[in-house]
Write a structure and sequence with these properties.
Layout: E1 10-18, H1 20-28, E2 34-37, E3 43-52, H2 54-62, E4 66-73, H3 80-107, H4 111-119, H5 133-140, H6 144-164, H7 170-185, H8 189-198, H9 204-221, H10 224-251, H11 258-261, H12 265-278, E5 281-288, E6 300-308, H13 312-322, E7 327-330, H14 332-337, H15 346-362, E8 366-374, E9 379-387
Antiparallel strand pairs: 1-3, 1-4, 2-3, 4-5, 5-6, 6-9, 7-8, 8-9
Helix pairs in contact: 2-3, 3-8, 3-9, 3-10, 5-8, 6-7, 6-9, 7-9, 10-12, 10-15
Length: 388
């Protein structure tokens, strides 16, 4: 089930970086854009949100209005559920978009569309066909019944398959039924235009089978959203604990057992307050693959986590000067294995990572992880890259 069902509002300090389309839309509504200095020291324009509905973020992603989302905090534990919900909203939104694109590609390859193109060379329906939303809404305005009936024809076999699956619990059946509806509800107007145009043609069944096959595939792919959200949270907490340990050593130099100390709630709260005062943050960003013009990159998602303090500009210059001599690249699994003995959550991190890796392989989602560690600064930059 998508994160958007869990909570009506999410409270997190978001920097939402806009695409050109997104910026144009906001400016056309007389909404001022803010200039942000992001974690990588690049200036970008966007909007700031502190309380928002998951649906609003999802809508903006589906409209290709968002290129990146970034949050920065000294402490993630108290916002654990919110961060995980946000991560799931982003992943689900990308899956909905990618599903819509793949449905279009499948439909224009169907024989009924090819036959139409052969008979109507001046009115082709192919990858170059463009129709405005206004045009499409006008064409589809009196076809609600056709859409509802066709939707039922497409979904009925899937629903029967879900309900007859003895491996699913009642709750899982409900989740899959709801998910199948959600994917169909987010099918774009252009796809419905093609479906309604050919729903009574000889080749209609070919279209319906193609849609069902992709729907089944994307319902399986959606399982990775949960794994990604857990992995992101684990990495954020790992970075948070690294910062807290470092600050605890400064504040409590006469204490031997720092590990036990930092899990005392009162002491931890004092350390977090000091980190906030020093503006020492963990940054977490989701970079979305690109808008409709970024051919081949639309299904990409890059998630980056890194620590940052007030000396980050100096650190960045050191990194650029030293290049490879000052950094060590490794995979995320090597990063976990190299953590000091007794480091909290190491085994858990490897456990989550193996599940995420396996889940991605099963559903043909490309996943790679890379960690850059910069020796002089103790700065760690973790990249999780996905291609849906």
């Amino acid at each position: 089930m998508g994160a958007s069902d869990k909570k009506f509002m999410i409270e997190l300090p978001l920097k939402v970086i806009l695409t050109e389309d997104g910026a144009s839309n906001f400016l056309s509504h007389n909404q001022k854009l803010l200039r942000f200095r992001l974690a990588d020291n690049v200036d970008e324009y966007g909007v700031s949100l502190n309380k928002f509905s998951p649906q609003s973020i999802q809508r903006m992603i589906l409209l290709d209005y968002i290129s990146k989302i970034e949050i920065s905090m000294s402490e993630f534990v108290s916002s654990r559920q919110e961060v995980m919900d946000l991560s799931k909203v982003i992943v689900y939104s990308l899956l909905y978009k990618q599903f819509d694109r793949e449905i279009y590609s499948a439909l224009i390859r169907c024989e009924c569309v090819r036959k139409h193109n052969r008979s109507n060379p001046s009115n082709l329906i192919d990858e170059k066909t463009k129709m405005s939303e206004r045009q499409l809404r006008a064409v589809l305005s009196n076809k609600e019944n056709i859409i509802a009936n066709t939707r039922k024809i497409i979904l009925d076999p899937i629903w029967k398959s879900i309900m007859s699956n003895k491996d699913y619990t009642s709750e899982e059946k409900n989740v899959f039924l709801l998910m199948s509806e959600k994917f169909m509800n987010r099918l774009g107007l252009m796809n419905w235009y093609i479906i309604t145009l050919f729903h009574k043609s000889d080749g209609a069944n070919e279209m319906f089978i193609a849609i069902r096959n992709l729907l089944n595939a994307y319902m399986e792919k959606s399982k990775v959203a949960e794994y990604i959200s857990v992995m992101v949270m684990e990495l954020a907490l790992n970075n948070e604990n690294t910062n807290i340990r470092k600050e605890a050593r400064n504040m409590y130099q006469d204490v031997d057992d720092i590990g036990a100390l930092i899990f005392d709630p009162e002491v931890r709260a004092k350390i977090v307050k000091e980190l906030q005062r020093k503006h020492e943050l963990v940054f977490l960003s989701w970079k979305l693959g690109g808008g409709s013009s970024s051919i081949g990159k639309q299904g990409r998602l890059s998630i980056t986590l890194y620590n940052k303090d007030d000396e980050f500009q100096e650190v960045k210059e050191n990194i650029e000067n030293a290049k490879a001599a000052d950094s060590h690249k490794k995979t995320l699994i090597d990063f976990y294995r190299d953590l000091p003995d007794g480091e909290e959550g190491t085994d858990l991190g490897l456990y989550y990572l193996s599940y995420l890796d396996e889940a991605c392989k099963k559903v043909n989602v490309k996943f790679e992880s890379l960690v850059n560690q910069f020796a002089t600064s103790e700065l760690t930059v973790i990249n999780l890259n996905f291609n849906f």
